[in-house]
Amino acid sequence: MSMLKLQGALLRGTESLRLGLRSYSLTRMKEEARKKILWEQVELMEVLEARVKQLLADHGSEVLMDPVPASGARRAEVLPPTPLPKAPGQNSPAPTLGQSSAARPSRWMEKLRREKLAKPECLRELPTGVLSAPLPQKQRDTPLEKGPAHKRTKHGPAKVSLAAPAREADLESLAATPEPGRTPKASENKPAERKPEPAGKAKGQAIQTEAGGPASPKPLAPAESEKVDRNIQLSLLAYLDTCLHLQQPDRAHRCLAYYHRAATRRAWLDIRMYNLVLHGHAKKGAIREVGTVFQMIEEARLKPNLDSYAAQAMEHGYSLEELFQGGSCQKDEEEMMLRAIRAVQPGFQRPQALVRTENCTVPLLRDFYAKDSQVSYPKLDFTARDLRERFRNQLAMELGNTVTVESVEKKPVTERTLQARKLLAALRTRWRVSLLKNFQESKRQMEMQNPRQLSLYPFLCLMPAEEYVDILMQMLSMLPPPGQSLVILARDLGNKIHSRYLTQKKICSREGEKMWTLYKRYIQLLAKDTKPDHLLPRQYWEALAAKEGCDFSQATKGHTWPISLLVQLGVHLLELLVQTLKVESNLLMPTAESKLIPAVYHVYSFRGSWQVGFIRLHPIVNRLFAEAAETNLAFDAAVIPMLCPPVPWVSPHFGAYVVSPTKLMRFLDGTNQHQRALEDSPRADLFSAFDALNQLGNCPWKINRPILELAIAVFNAKGSEKLGVPPPPSEAPEPPKRPPKDQEPPTKAELKREIAQCRKKAAEMYSMRMDMLYKLSIARHVAGQVFWFPHNMDFRGRTYPCPPHFNHLGSDLTRAILLFAEGKPLGPHGLDWLKIHLVNLTGQKKRSSLAERLAYANEILGDILDSANQPLTGRKWWMEMDEPWQTLACSMEIAKAMRSPNPEAYVSHFPVHQLTSVDLRQCREFSDVDPGRLLQRAATLRRPRAGRGRGRLRQPFAVRRPQDVYSVVAQQVEVFRQQDAKNGLPIAQALEGFISRKVVKQTVMTVVYGVTRYGGRLQIEKRLKEIDDFPQKYVWEASHYLVQQVFNSLREMFSGTREIQAWLTECAMLISKSGRVVEWVTPLGLPVIQPYYRSKSLTVKSSMQNVNLKLSYDVNQKPNTLKQKNAFPPNFIHSLDSTHMMLTALHCHQQGLTFVSVHDCYWTHARTVDVMNQICRDQFVRLHQQPILEDLSCFMLQKYCPRDWTDTGNDRPTAPQKLMKLLSNIPSKGDFDLEKVKESTYFFS
């Protein structure tokens, strides 16, 4: 229609056009005026409705309001397209109507706001009985209005304009009243429950119950409440926590108010965020702001907990004493709270710290924790003064953040090298100044941004600017020549900043002073010049902490930074690095033209079909670093072994290092479900894990200097692949050059493939070379002194040393370098165990008896002594063994013992390894045992009956030599092959003489991990290709045939074990299909959660590059069914392995043994091998005498099957019915007597 008017105006002339436009403008103004009047009517109705609800809540009226239509118009049709006006004091710009003047705030809204603020004063004037008396049902239940509808995206929360707050949310928050009679929870780490808004109800309409009255708001269902984006929640927690640490409560308050104002954003808030801001205002003494936050908590319908303000806590049924016992306040916060309480109650006394009196309730350890079985804790070979000095050195090292270690790599120092070092030092000085200037400028720009919304500004103020620059310069020195992925570098930078922030929080909370006081007294338990005590380290520390009135387990709680925040912070710093660092183009060629070029580049590289961002140094800078050949390496303090005994684990938040942050349970960045599970577990159930980790961490170590010096010599002599010492990058294969003219040039695809292989090989060699450089350099750094490895564990309970580079879980060379700091005489059988251990390390005589191994060691005694005396110039027998460096170290120890006047009195520091390998394999009665630990454990759970199975012996343990099940499977496959060959099968005939133990080993080992026939065929195909004599044209057909025969053999030989594996797999499949992950509890009470979810893409945007993160641990995603079901059997067995190890470690302590483990490989002195063997057997039997599968079934039935489930009468069973039936039908057990395991000769191999 408007186009017709425009055409007529053009025909009549310009004057008519102006008249037409004027007429159109008047029509629009009238329409907007009509909408304005209609909007004011709707607003008035909302205010009246809110007023009625407020009167109902204040005076308990039983009158119900009928819904009144708003002028017969739909709400969506009368909303103006601009932001709505807000009441005064809400920090939002006044909206405009077109280009007219701004509308004034409604006086009705102002009156309602004043009455809302005056309501608490009225309530305080009422008698106590009025507040505590329960209201009638109709008075308690308040009609809940439907909030504004927001569209949600496919993969995440709705895209809401954060600059335009919603009017409905403000009206609802003003009209909302807390529900009386709520019972608060004390846990701070669980999101508070919210009140959902029912769908399908118009605004102002009451929700009717079946009885005709209004229904009370109900909390969200678990599946619905989990839809809140936890990544945003963690980012908000981190932002608020950082602001308060920087003494900026106003910035935190503005951010909280911004997200609280709109209903959609308020869904991301929980009580933890309000409590953080409350603590910040309380520290400043801002009472008015504290009241404002409490009003916000009331409007959000959240339940205050122990961390909320004291007065509010008392109103909700908490006592003042509970605030000092169950909250998470730091020491200075508790002192401020105590002063505030005494201002009201002058006679109030702070309750004394409770002495931990919980007892371990695990049946397996009742006798261990019994008072009559307690023994004196073993002393270290150090005085109290020595240990105090060592603690001072460790604390200084951790406070310094970085440790400079001299490199073991030797390069010739020439005049050019000195010149390059001087030039590099000048460049670093210039780069540091430029980085510092640009970093401070970027902070100033961020500070000027909107303080209400999340930004990186607080995270860039956690430390002095010089420390950020030091971190960047350290990263620059460690950057490899090929470059590094942007995501990896950004995540590492974010983690470093987070770690230093947590360390700084501990220091600011005066935890360092308390730690020093407590550790001085804790030394009394370990020092040799003090009185003995029967308490364990955890018990001793808790008793000391109770006397001092402190609880470190609460003070060190921190908020997890999500992976998106870590990457975003790291990308920002990397972008600053790329933009700042410049270098002269003629730096190495002074005669060339000089111009400034970037020293660091951001480039893209293809990895398959993916384009990956890389950070690389300019070739000029790379060459300068190479020519400088610097001799120092910089490491974080937590990478170096500890110089004093670790702080004992007493809670999931406290233990290991002095101030450096450490996780009790290892998990991926950004995940916290494991930490929540540990916090929710009964504290007594974790005692066994704490004590086992403390026992492993308290073992002192020292360096085997002769082996270290030999390893450094080989390392500097261009390495040796045969000995596991990688060569330098200069030995990497060069890319193919142009072929001679008489040869046919390769195709473009072949040339590209060869170049890619050369680059891959060079990158691998560089990575392995640097890894070995770090190990050897750290070893030489701590050589000559005693050190310790603090331990933690993964989600299955398997233990690991905290220092990542150098520890006893490393390679053959790393293990050979380590010795026990405490020595013990060999005794009558110690030398024999050293010889047997040496034969085990050679990889020979695997199926021989112990007596035969000892006899073989005596036969080769000449080679052993020659290797010990002339390792690099003699016959070099040790270099041909499976574990050459450990073989050499053991040979040197045997030589020293034999040279001593009395070998039995020789004090040995050498650790003897024993791999747990149940001797049930030697008994065909129990042939359901896999050589791997997994089928072995499953077979023990099944306990097969005697006399069953293929070719079983009737008498148990009749064979007194270890049996190799890999060879047994290979023999069974050979029987099948011979039968098929007789029947004329060509491929069976072609395989004659080629079926060996090596061909089938990998497939047999990985079958319990869920390897498929396809995967097994690839494994066997790889082994067949390694056989030179085998016809390569038959590889595919032969691998396809052999994988079928291997699976047939396993099915026949391990029928019972496969039954348990199938039961576990099917349980996990049904559980994950129901939308939940698989969880269980180990026999020691440790909670286990499988963190396998469907991948979720998350994009972190920056001006340099948008980083796409694939998160596979987001709890809001559905479980990954394939990973859940395939990983459950091995993870469950690994959790039993860790349980057995912890039991063995604790009972070895009770017997006074030195004990260390590498998963299922146990270490001790040669003198105490027999005692450790007996303890291991006893604890294995005790563990498997427990109803493990029955307890697992009961736990899963209680967790995953609804209690109120009833039979629906349908013929087709539902998913819950299938799961309940499956969990109830536990695989049957045999009648095998587990006590016979104690008679096993080869329980260790």
TrEMBL record:
Membrane spanning stretches: none
Family matches, as InterPro entries: DNA-dir_RNA_pol_helix_hairp_sf, DNA-dir_Rpol_C_phage-type, DNA-dir_Rpol_phage-type, DNA/RNA_pol_sf, PPR_rpt, RNA_POL_N_sf, RPOL_N, TPR-like_helical_dom_sf
Gene3D superfamilies membership: 1.10.287.260, 1.10.287.280, 5' to 3' exonuclease, C-terminal subdomain, DNA-directed RNA polymerase, N-terminal domain, Tetratricopeptide repeat domain
UniProt repeat feature PPR, residue ranges: 270-304
GO molecular function: DNA-directed RNA polymerase activity; mitochondrial promoter sequence-specific DNA binding
Record domain DNA-directed RNA polymerase N-terminal: where: 392-698
Subcellular compartments: Mitochondrion
EC identifiers of the protein: 2.7.7.6
Swiss-Prot/TrEMBL keywords: DNA-directed RNA polymerase, Mitochondrion, Nucleotidyltransferase, Transcription, Transferase, Transit peptide
Record-level GO BP terms: mitochondrial transcription
GO cellular component, one term: mitochondrial DNA-directed RNA polymerase complex
UniProt xrefs under SMART domains: RPOL_N
Organism: Phrynocephalus forsythii
Protein's UniProt name: DNA-directed RNA polymerase, mitochondrial
Main location (coarse class): mitochondrion
